[in-house]
Design a protein that fits this description.
The structure holds 2 protein chains of 2 kinds. Chain A is of the alpha/beta class. Chain A is built from 10 helices and 19 strands. Chain A has a domain of 276 residues. In chain A, the strands form 2 sheets. A 10-stranded mixed sheet of chain A has the order 2-1-5-7-9-11-13-15-17-19, covered by helices on one side. A 9-stranded mixed sheet of chain A has the order 3-4-6-8-10-12-14-16-18. In chain A, a hairpin with a 2-residue loop joins strand 1 and strand 2. In chain A, helix 5 crosses helix 6 and helix 8 packs across helix 9. The longest helix of chain A has 18 residues. Chain B is α/β, with parallel strands linked by helices. Chain B contains 8 helices and 12 strands. In chain B, the strands form 3 sheets. Chain B has a 6-stranded mixed sheet, with helices on both faces. In chain B, strands 2-1-4-5 form a 4-stranded antiparallel sheet. The chains are: A alpha/beta, B alpha/beta. Chains A and B meet through helix 8 and helix 9 of A and helix 2, strand 7, helix 3 and strand 8 of B.
């Protein structure tokens, strides 16, 4: 079967076009016309762009050969598979007592595993599918205006195929005290791609925190996109914990727009998955916004991970703080690319970025590439980057007290990563993340 | 009396080939306190480092027998679990590692090694409190990262506190007195004296006689150019203080 189209199509995109055509009738029954048009337009964009070139800066550290050799088409399942594995994954990586939880399995909302009773007035929370049906005012314009350029072909693919996700809309002046937990699970039922799309809109002066955890079994490709919109004086903490299956691919994209005096605290902890790419793009549009982006990755075996951050200051008085910690053992490879841009007129911006990395074995490697682009003259911007090994003096000190070499190394690696994790403001979320780090460390240097 | 530590003809050099220890002979019995004195560069700290198992040194000749075992064949952490303790001349700052957590990990590693049950947080805290008094250490220091933000004196007291917690068979104190004012010196000396025991040996490495006013040694050795050139009882330390190391060198 071959889809008939009137736009240029890259060869690697063709199977995806065909899959789109096959599922069109089922989709059209459920979805509004505007969404069908949006999907069609996004698909055409993807077809034209194809896969990113490894020569492009944004994709040079990610090996796309697996996707090139075999198309990982969107999961065809109409319903999520909820089996014992899903419950195991929830028990393993979920919060002990989440106040509000949304569970997505294979990219689809699972109401029976989700709970969000007792949300305060002014908070709308639901699956993306529900938001499309009930809140087109919330989602339509945001979806249609998300940036898709040559460096983001998979964002276009996501737009064409996303099955679900979550949407959170917080009215002005509303404080959501308890964190909201989103669990993205994969059943292992398919060797396909899972596309999820989410949206968080935080009204003026409102506060919220969201932790999204990604886990699964089997071989799959997850392509997740989330957009965050912070109104003036809004505060949002968004945490991504990535513990995908050992053979999984994970591309996560976060797009954020900051209003005046708003505060975004983004944190990412990348622990599991064969190939993991996390990209955060922040537009600081309002004056005196504060953007914290922090995170860590711990890699072993043949894992590869790439963190990319772009913070673009369009308005004066903004502040950016970044601390990223990378740890690579075995034959793994990690890369950090961090760009901070200060546009003309964005005076008094204060930005600092730090990328510190530990390479634990001779066959592991970490690349770090900080970049400042400054077009205003009255700013304070700096960055630091380092790649090294564990401190021999500290290691000897611990061993001289009877602590084994393996345990001493774990303690020092944990301490190294802890500095980034401690930037997470919520004590229970911080503890949860530290416990995941501790668990990862038990197998890191095997 | 059985020797706790028996060093015979120990030669050691740095990885760049410079020989620092040039034939050390030393025997320390259980329950004894030995002082090793000597000028800067005589090899005192190298001896401590080689005994504790620090990397960066090569033993080219000689043997070290510790509680009947070949000490040099053991890894640094195994030596510690077998009861050898080094109080560092320059305690290492370890950001991000909580002092209390570090110490409990160390104590439990040693207890496991001896086949004893591990201490839980509550049991551990009780032991900690009883030993803290000994060294006049504020409990809040233990909630900080290891040695981070400690004053020089606090670092040294923390070393002796760790010794009290780990209850070693053989403690080597590498210039624990250096940089201490007289009050801190008395506290540290008191802490060491409290830990003298018939089944524990202590080796005090020091540049000055001052510490020995408060911790009275059974034997005093003078180390010079990588060899022990003179040994005697505690009066030797006083004599050195009066005459300086140069005279000993001439006599040797």
């Amino acid at each position: 079967m071959s889809a008939v189209v009137d736009f240029p199509v890259k060869p690697e995109a063709r199977p995806y076009l065909e899959a789109f055509a096959r599922s069109a009738s089922a989709r059209d029954r459920h979805e509004p016309d505007w969404l069908a048009g949006y999907r069609q337009g996004s698909l055409a964009r993807f077809a034209e762009l194809g896969f990113p070139s490894r020569r492009s800066e944004a994709w040079r550290y990610i090996d796309l050969r697996r996707l090139e050799q075999r198309s990982m088409l969107p999961a065809p399942a109409e319903r999520a598979v909820v089996d014992a594995a899903a419950h195991d994954q929830i028990a393993e990586i979920g919060l002990a007592e989440p106040a509000y939880r949304i569970v997505l399995v294979d990219g689809r909302f699972v109401p029976e595993l989700s709970t969000f009773d007792g949300l305060p007035a002014g908070v709308w929370l639901g699956s993306m599918a529900a938001a499309i049906a009930e809140r087109p005012d919330l989602v339509r314009s945001r979806l249609e205006t998300a940036p898709i350029d040559a460096s983001r072909p998979f964002t276009a693919l996501n737009a064409a195929f996303f099955t679900d996700g979550f949407a959170l809309d917080i009215a002005p002046g509303t404080i959501l005290e308890q964190p909201l937990e989103i669990l993205h699970l994969a059943s292992g039922d398919t060797a396909d791609s899972l596309h999820t799309r989410s949206l968080v809109v935080v009204g003026e002066g409102s506060h919220a925190s969201v932790i999204e955890s990604f886990a699964g079994v089997g071989e799959y490709w997850r392509n997740d996109v989330i957009e965050l919109r912070l109104a003036a004086e809004a505060a949002l903490a968004r945490i991504a914990l990535v513990e995908e299956a050992p053979h999984a691919l994970h591309f996560g994209e976060m797009l954020a727009t900051l209003g005046a005096a708003s505060h975004l605290a983004g944190f990412v902890l990348l622990l599991g998955g064969r190939t993991v790419r996390h990209e955060a793009t922040v537009r600081s549009e309002g004056e005196r916004s504060r953007c914290e982006l922090d995170g860590a990755f711990l890699l072993s075996g043949r894992q590869e991970t790439n963190i990319l951050t772009t913070v673009d200051h369009y308005a004066p008085g903004g502040e950016t703080r970044e601390i990223f910690k990378g740890v690579a053992a075995g034959q793994s490879h990690g890369a950090f690319q961090g760009r901070i841009t200060v546009r003309p007129g964005a005076q008094k911006v204060d930005a600092h970025q730090l990328s510190q990395n530990l390479v634990l074995s001779p066959r592991a490697a970490i690349d770090t590439k900080p970049e400042l682009e400054i077009f205003a003259d009255d700013v304070k911007c700096s960055h630091g980057a380092a790649v090294g090994d564990l401190d021999e003096a500290a290691l000897f000190y611990l061993r001289a007290r009877g602590i084994s070499n393996e345990e001493a190394r774990r303690m020092l690696i944990e301490a190294f990563v802890r500095e980034a994790v401690e930037r997470v403001a919520s004590p229970p979320l911080r503890e949860h993340l530290l416990s995941r780090v501790a668990r990862r460390l038990t197998t890191l240097e095997e | 009396m059985a020797a706790m530590l028996e060093i015979k003809n120990l030669h050691a050099r740095l990885t760049d080939g410079r020989e620092i220890l040039r034939g050390i002979d030393l025997s320390v019995n259980a329950g004894e306190v030995h002082a090793i004195m000597g000028p800067n560069g005589s090899g005192k700290s190298t001896l401590a480092a080689v005994l504790a198992g620090r990397t960066g040194y090569e033993v080219s000749e000689g043997t070290v027998n510790y509680i009947g075992r070949d000490l040099l064949a053991m890894e640094a952490d195994e030596r510690a679990r077998e009861g050898l303790f080094l109080a560092f001349q320059y305690p290492v700052e370890i950001p991000g590692v909580n002092n209390m957590y570090f110490l409990r990990t160390a104590v439990n590693a040693q207890r496991r090694h001896r086949g004893e049950p591990e201490l839980d947080a509550g049991q551990f805290l009780r032991v900690v409190r009883s030993k803290l008094k000994l060294l006049d250490i504020r409990e809040d220091l233990l909630q900080r990262a290891v040695n981070v933000g400690f004053s020089g004196g606090e670092k040294k007291r923390n070393e002796v506190f760790q010794m009290a917690m780990l209850e070693p068979r053989l403690a080597i104190l590498d210039e624990t007195d250096s940089g201490l004012d007289i009050d801190a010196l008395k506290i540290v000396a008191h802490g060491v004296n409290q830990q003298r025991a018939p089944d524990r040996s202590i080796v005090l490495i020091t540049h000055y006689q001052r510490l020995l006013n408060y911790v009275e040694p059974d034997r005093v050795h003078v180390l010079q150019a990588g060899r022990i050139v003179q040994s005697g009882d505690k009066t030797l330390a006083l004599e050195l203080e009066r005459r300086g190391y140069g005279v000993v060198e001439d006599a040797a």
